[in-house]
Amino acid sequence: MLQTEGRNYKLAKNQYEGYQYIDLDNFYTYENSFVLINKQNILDPNLAKNNEHLYVSKRLADLYMLPIPVYSMTDILKLHKYLFQDVYSWAGQYRKVNITKSGNPFMSIQSFSSAENFINDLLNTYHQKTNTKESIIKNLAKILDCLNFFHPFREGNGRTQREVIRVLALSKGYKAQIRVSEDDTVYNTYMDGTVHGDLQKLELLFEKILEKI
How far apart are CA 209 and CA 212, in angstroms? Predict the structure, then answer.
């Protein structure tokens, strides 16, 4: 929030192009629709979005009180399943379609095994060798960047990423809340960093939000 002569000005959120999915067989969506097949069988896009938000927000509140520790991709899959279990039958499962954003592809499903091993190595390094605030910032930025490029899920990657980061910071005695809905500066830095693979932006993000407990 900027302040000028007693007035508050809210920064505008940057706009980003949407995702494209190669899902010719409608594995995830209702036929002739972009709505994800959901357990409540809601076909209206706005109602489906609100339905998902309601259930996932409750699950996030639960995790705030009792986090799922993250030491490997297995734990990240478990976390995603916990968040989205009420809405999608595939919660906690790797996506089966490829994704692009702004014409740039995320990790192809054919490379998931290598990506999983790489993320596991990053998490192991973080837990075993990362102790100073500076190294925590650098390693969280690298983990977030790589996890975002991996983009392992058909839906819910951002919310899962942010919970992973929160839990990893907690394990080192820090708070790291990426409040994308409440702080436009945080949103823009987070999105610029993840969309463009900009580690410097992500390090700036963690310099801003990382707080000692």
Answer: 10
Looking at residue 122, which CATH number applies to its domain?
A: 1.10.3290.10
How does residue 104 score in pLDDT terms, banded at 50, 70 and 90? confident
Task: Check residue 18 and give its pLDDT.
Answer: 63
Alpha helices in the chain (DSSP H): 45-65, 73-84, 112-129, 133-150, 157-171, 184-195, 199-209
Q: What is the mean pLDDT of residues 32-40?
A: 94
Whether 5 is covered by a domain: the verdict is: no
Domain membership of residue 91 (yes or no) is yes
Residue with the bigger pLDDT between 20 and 57: it is: 57
Q: What was the pLDDT predicted at 6?
A: 39
11-18's contacts with Cβ under 8 Å and 24+ in sequence apart are: 11/184, 11/185, 11/188, 12/184, 13/184, 13/187, 13/188, 14/187, 14/188, 14/191, 14/192, 16/101, 16/102, 16/191, 16/195, 17/101, 17/102, 17/103, 18/101
For residue 11, being part of any structural domain is answered with no
Confidence of residue 48 (pLDDT cuts 50, 70, 90): very high
Q: Please report whether residue 8 resides in a domain.
A: no
Q: What range does the domain containing 30 cover? A: 19-212
State pLDDT tens for residues 145-169. 999 999 999 999 999 999 999 999 9
Distances (CA, A) of 145 to 59, 61, 148, 152, 200: 24, 25, 5, 13, 11
Domain count for the chain:
1
